[in-house]
Design goal:
64% of the residues lie in helices and 0% in strands. By secondary structure, it is mainly alpha-helical. The longest helix has 21 residues. It folds into two domains: 101 residues, RNA polymerase sigma factor, region 2, helix turn helix motif (Rna Polymerase Sigma Factor, Chain: A), CATH 1.10.1740; 78 residues, Arc Repressor Mutant, subunit A.
């Protein structure tokens, strides 16, 4: 059964790929989720790990890399690929410059206002307000609607986790988008 499924995948049978996803994807996500602990849960999305693992699996199947026996099936192979992908992601996030202990928030008091340059903290005159609004308009025009929503929610005072839940993205994605916005704004204001 497992080898038959592999053979169909090698031939490019999309229904075989669908069967494989139906049978194993949720179990693989649960496996990855069970091995992501603590603060890494904010950085590593189990679905991303499984997608990467399945991508590698499908690529290698098309190259004829795997042979399985029906006694053990595909689960041990898929679980091993997933765990190896997860280990690489964890090692990536444990690197010194990305270590969780070295993480600093761009937020002060859970507000995204902290990334506005210090010169803007002073009371602006009317011309400065107009100039700032024009610069913000330029930066906002470059953002996708989703990114604009993330920035607006953050500027309204929502922390990254709340924003992430509201827009159905990971907290890491929200932080990355806010950092990109911050960089774009800084470049415009310099």
């Amino acid at each position: 059964m497992a080898q038959e499924l592999l053979d169909r995948l090698k031939q490019g049978d999309e229904t075989a790929a669908g069967e494989l996803l139906d049978r194993y994807a949720s179990r693989l996500i649960a496996l990855a989720m069970s091995r992501i602990h603590g603060r890494l849960q904010r950085r590593i999305d189990p679905e991303d790990v499984v997608q990467s693992a399945l991508g590698s699996f499908f690529r290698r199947v098309s190259e004829g890399a795997y042979e399985v026996d029906d006694k053990h099936g595909l689960w041990p192979l898929l679980a091993t690929i997933t765990i190896n992908k997860l280990r690489k992601r964890i090692a990536f996030h444990d690197a010194d410059k990305r270590a969780l202990d070295a993480e600093e928030s761009i937020f002060t008091g859970e507000s995204a206002v902290s990334f506005v340059p210090a010169a803007l903290a002073e009371e602006p005159d009317h011309e400065d307000e107009i100039a700032l609004m024009e610069e913000l308009d330029v930066v906002f025009a470059k953002l996708t609607p989703l990114h604009r929503e993330i920035v607006m929610r953050s500027l309204a005072g929502d922390d990254a986790l709340v924003v992430a839940e509201a827009v159905n993205r990971t907290e890491r994605t929200v932080r990355r988008i806010l950092e990109r916005f911050r960089k774009m704004l800084r470049e415009r204001l310099q």
